[in-house]
Every structure is written in C-alpha cells, then in structure tokens.
C-alpha cells in the first residue's frame, strides 16, 4: 500500500495478504486461498498497518478462506447441484435451469466477449459493485437461460430479453470514474486475491 503523487492511497502491483490461521499463527495467504469481500468494509487505510496487509495486523479467520474450506464449499455446491438435477430429472413437470453451468461457461470464456463483459472485479460488468450479485445485464442473461429452458421443455414461445453492450454496468453508472480507479492499480491488485465460486464442476 503506497501513496501516489496526489497522496492518494493506491495498491502496489502485488499485494501480499497476511492472515491468522486456525492455530493462531500469522502467515501469508497462498495463491489458492481467498480473502472475503467483507475485508473491504473492515480495512482502514489511514494506518501504517492496514488490516491484512501487514503481519502486525493479520486478517482474522472470518475474513479469509483456507484451501480446505474452499474445497468443502465446492463439494457442498457440487452435491446440491447433483441433487437438484436428480430431482428435476425424476419429474416431467420440472425443468432444470443450470445456472451453475451457465456461470462456469462465462468463467471459462473470461466473461461474455460479444458484449464486452469481463470477469474483472467491479468493472467487468457481470457482477454488481458489491462483487457478488449479478449486475443488471447479467440478470438479463440469466433470465434468457430460464426462457431458453422453458421454451424447450414446455414448448413455450417466450421471447428472450433484449441484451446489448449498451445495457452494461459501465454505461449505467456514468458518475463512477472507473478510469481513475483502474489507473490507481486498485483493481489489478485484487484480481487474484478475490474470486467467486463460479467455476465449479
């Protein structure tokens, strides 16, 4: 964490996060561990040792996930998805909309290139500014997944929701200066530290 020429706080190119593990040891988080977005509301940058960015002020266990915890979450997600698929397959009046599969495809493609959407945190356009919930354009894409399944499974003729690049988050929030945010280096530093579980099997 450094100050730029305007004395604004910005991130260096590489950010190392420190956390307190289950054994009460302070250590660097590795590349397969994830900081939770709640850190953003807990960190105070007006200090010499911002939360998680200095070994003297490590992240508490409730603000980061260790590899084994991520594995547990992924296993639970997979089990729930299998259960839902089995239930849908056993009832001809039910059709499964595989939203997990949809977001896996989006993740594998790095976004929705034809709409200029990327997986970039905050500015990619797929997720809202909280980094978790889908942005308006992503809700339209999800709605179209439902419509496609209903049209196919139930011989419906529901028109798809109109989706275009002009409806992306970036164009809907003209008062947010994303250019300055990007130039500060803030987003590129988070890119690998934060992730969403959208790439599960």
Task: Tell me what you see in this structure.
By secondary structure, the chain is α+β, with helices and mostly antiparallel strands. The protein is 36% helix and 9% strand. It contains seven helices and eight strands, in the order βββββαβααββαααα. The strands form four sheets. The chain has a two-stranded antiparallel ribbon. A hairpin with a 5-residue loop joins strand 1 and strand 2 (9-10). The two termini are 36 Å apart. The model is unreliable at 1-14 and 168-201 (pLDDT under 50).
Question: What is the strand and helix layout of this fold?
Answer:
Elements: E1 2-3, E2 9-10, E3 18-20, E4 26-28, E5 34-35, H1 39-42, E6 64-65, H2 67-89, H3 99-109, E7 111-112, E8 117-118, H4 136-154, H5 169-172, H6 178-183, H7 186-190
Antiparallel strand pairs: 1-2, 3-4, 5-6, 7-8
Structure at a glance:
This protein has 201 residues and is α+β, with helices and mostly antiparallel strands.
Low-confidence stretches at least 5 residues in length (pLDDT < 50)?
Answer: 1-14, 168-201
Structural class: alpha+beta
Mean pLDDT, to the nearest integer, reads 77
Helices and strands, in order, run as EEEEEHEHHEEHHHH
Q: In this structure, how is the largest beta sheet organized? A: 2 strands, antiparallel
Distance between the termini: 36 Å
Specify Rg, calculated over alpha carbons.
20 Å
Number of helices: 7
**Helical proportion?**
25-40%
The neighbouring-strand order within the major sheet is: 1-2
Report the sheet-strand fraction: 5-15%
Instruction: Write down the overall geometry.
Output: elongated
Number of strands: 8
